Amino acid sequence: MKQSKLFGKTIYEVPKDEVSKNAQLLIRGGFVDKLMAGVYYYLPLGKRVLSKIENIVREEMNAIGGQEILMSALQKKEDWQTTGRWDIDVMMKVQTNLDKEFGLGWTHEEAVTPLAKKYVRSYKDFPFSLYQIQTKFRNEKRAKSGILRGREFVMKDLYSFHTSEESLDEFYLQAKDAYSKVFKRVGLGDKTYFTYASGGDFSKYSHEFQTLTDAGEDNIHICDKCGIAINEEVVEELDGKCPECGSSDLHVEKAVEVGNIFKLKNRFTDPFNFKFLDSDGKEKTVMMGCYGIGPSRLMGTVVEILSDEKGVVWPKEIAPYQIHLVSLGNSDEVKNKAEEIYNDLQQQKVEVLFDDRGESAGVKLKDSDLIGIPLRVVVSAKTLGQDGVEIKKRSEEGFEIIKLGDLQHYLKNFI
RNA sequence: CGGGGCGUAGCGUAACGGCUAACGCACUUGGUUUGGGACCAAGGGACUCCGAGUUCGAAUCUCGGCGCCCCGACCA
What Å value separates CA A152 and C1' B21? Predict the structure, then answer.
């Protein structure tokens, strides 16, 4: 992509009403645009990052057998009345001119359960799991923290269905591992804690994945011994003891919830009367679990944690482009060589953002820092004098000059 | 939903109740620049959030609405 044609631009002054670090950096870098409180547009650069995160999530969900579907954001009032959740205040409602009311989905148990029931009756069809990556709506009383907490956001929600608690337990562990892989791949692995949380009425505990950051709104109690954490709401219930190892050496940290997994058991299958026929010919209750990750929140969390005073520092796996090719100076020699390198990289299917603009060196380098692509390749009169290009890693100080002929080989190793 | 603050060009700001609403960034044109947010010159861009009122006169004062931000409450 040529930067001269890229929609969206970097800005130096951030809107004064935007306070959170993630939104400030994302707006300054031209990743997102704010429409109103808690509602953001994703511009080309931001959309690329979001899509990459979604794809990582998608791959990990597929790996544990999840089948991707897409349900509607519009929800049927009757289904939510069935479970008694129609009047929960996070639910946004819309009304047609015929006075018919719909809800806007903030989670999809009320949608997926009747759907699953419609197609599945026999024990032979279990277990199975369905997921979607979809826009969710939530009537937050007060939207804040940039894209960490919006009224509209992207969510991956997976639902699993089982003929027994044992089967649910087994899948639950698989989902847990899949989630850990996701957080590792997006660069949050070492700051994300498996956290015990309230299980509601139907399970002793649910679990959250909490990533340490001051931008978070939760306090978690981390066990110094085994490295798991406990949510504020259940730490008392546990007498301040780690449920895994029994240690009481806990310390408190601020964190943001980036995912959760929850054994719903029959909480939703019962109200919808979703039963299966077992091999003994008897009708039995379907067990259910739900598993959520917010890709947009994940993106905001990465920005909160992996950025410096100059801008974002994207991890390789979710960077909008693999390489930022920057030409400095407007001599024909530099322009032609940069163009040539750009075309070569394109041909090798390398994702490259090429800053071909006629801006000054300072502007281009500052913008490059701000956008935060992990690897920068600079072409200038200086580098061409040495028959090479400069390679600079965004996450490190310093740079190196490598010969033009060695570029392909170098990039192959890096990417 | 309670308390506080704020709405002026795309963004950041200025303007005593009184002249054509000013400046910086961004944008357009021409020229000089090009290794860390360059310079010169010439331009375009505003129903001062909306609606009432007070006044000879309102961006400025009053009332109402809407929106935004901060603190709190809320967050399966």
Answer: 38
The answer to whether A14 CB sits below 7 Å from nucleic acid chain B is yes
Give the angle subtended at the CA of A185 by the CAs of A181 and A189, to the nearest 5°: 70
One domain for residues A15 and A163:
yes
Q: Check: CB of residue A300 under 8 Å from CB of residue A257.
A: no
* Residue A407, domain CATH: 3.40.50.800
User: What one-letter code names the amino acid at A150?
Assistant: G
pLDDT tens digits along A237-278: 899 999 999 999 999 999 999 999 999 999 999 999 999 999
Q: Where does A201-274 show beta strands of DSSP type E?
A: 205-212, 218-223, 229-231, 250-265
The complex's ipTM works out to 0.94
Domains identified in chain A, total number: 2
| Comparison of pLDDT for A19 and A372, the residue scoring more | A372
Global confidence as pTM: 0.97
Spatial distance between the Cα atoms of A168 and A126, rounded to a whole number of angstroms: 11
- CB-CB neighbours of A6 under 10 Å: 18
Residues lying close to strand B (Cβ under 7 A), chosen from 224-263 of chain A, are: 260, 262
Place of tokens 């148990």: A109
CB A309 under 7 Å to nucleic chain B: no
| A365: CB within 7 A of chain B nucleic strand | yes
Using an 8 Å Cβ cutoff, are A28 and A370 in contact?
Answer: yes
Q: Which of A280, A308, A336 is the last residue of a domain?
A: A308
Same domain, A204 and A277: yes
Q: Are A285 and A246 in contact (CB under 8 A)?
A: no
What is the phi/psi pair of residue A11, to 5°?
Answer: -130, 155
Q: Whole domain around residue A409: which residue ranges?
A: 321-414
